[in-house]
Amino acid sequence: MSVTRDIELPPVIAAPDYPLPGSVRTPDYAPGERSALIEEIRTLLREKDAVLVAHYYTDEDLQMIADETGGAVADSLEMARFGSKHPASTLVVAGVRFMGETAKILNPEKRVLMPTLEAECSLDLGCPPEKFIPFCDAHPDRTVVVYANTSAAVKARADWVVTSSIALKVAEHLRNEGKKILWAPDRYLGDYIMRMTGVDMVIWQGSCVVHEEFKMDELNRLKDGHPEAAVLVHPESPPGVIALADRVGSTSQIIQAACEMDNDLFIVATEDGIFHKMKEAAPGKTFIAAPTAGEGATCKSCAHCPWMKMNDLRGLERVLEGGANEVFIDEVIRRRAEVSLKRMVDFAREHIKPGMHVSGNA
Ligand code: SF4
Prior knowledge:
The chain is α/β, with parallel strands linked by helices. The chain has three domains: 21-121 and 307-330, Rossmann fold, CATH 3.40.50; 123-208 and 336-355, Rossmann fold, CATH 3.40.50; 211-289, Rossmann fold, CATH 3.40.50. The chain contains 16 helices and 13 strands. The strands form three sheets. A five-stranded mixed sheet has the order 12-11-9-10-13, covered by helices on one side. A four-stranded parallel sheet has the order 2-1-3-4, sandwiched between helices. Strands 6-5-7-8 form a four-stranded parallel sheet. Strand 1 (50-55), helix 3 and strand 2 (72-74) form a beta-alpha-beta unit. The two termini are 23 Å apart. The protein binds iron/sulfur cluster (SF4). The site of iron/sulfur cluster has 13 residues, from helix 6. Iron/sulfur cluster is lined by residues 57, 96, 121-123, 149, 208-210, 271, 305, 307-308.
């Protein structure tokens, strides 16, 4: 496998300041406020012809409301699919900004609202279009494949958009067509795809502030203490952590693995919001968060995405009530981004069934 690096790779671009995890970790509701908000949100979803689509990493209350009201709790790919096929005129996307943008790109005729427009993603922030577009222009011989965790403008420059649940399949497909890939922005997922498929790639050097904190040595020690546990790892994690996994996969694939595998105990290396669905999907099984503390740890995240947790009941109620936080995208950019996104959705329809497992290290 050859890895071409024609020009110097861009440095990792530091994410701007964001709320500390402690400031958004547990919503601080007054007595009776939480149940009143939940009731009001249920009513407003009905009255406003709206449906709630929540990511697995959001607060448990939002996931519960989405499930109970006919919405969806899903990974990025399923969120995109669900929003397109649901008849509601308003999609309320609980997640981070690129997820709301994706919903709008695929559903321009619908109103797309978000509980907050401030929820960013370090991968998106670390891949600004004004730097990414010249990087692509310097590699005209490569097919540009970007992760869903990017802005609409970056998607508009790409040939393909992929999520972690479909990335390997698309890379295999392109490799079989003799294509070379320019990948952005997650360097660990890019490295994983390159190792698993052998495809020729240049890789943008972005990272997720949550997954890159998982520590190999500490995970090894935890495994030693629990030899009966299976290790489930999201491929945005560092290679040493991925190497210790029994299964590597997207959030949906990790949940599916917990249901399928015979183990009763799992060590899980992804954002801790996923435990809500894992416990629901595999009752009776036990889940331990993979360690983020140890040598070199900064623990800005501690398996906890501070942006995802900015989605709360108050914000959800407010946007449903007043229609604030609507997502708008420049139409020229939207049309271009729609091409690369639809390529993924069409490919997924043929090659990936919902919840299908893609890779395993075991
Ligand atoms: S968990 Fe990582 S990849 Fe997901 S939204 Fe947060 S910063 Fe982005």
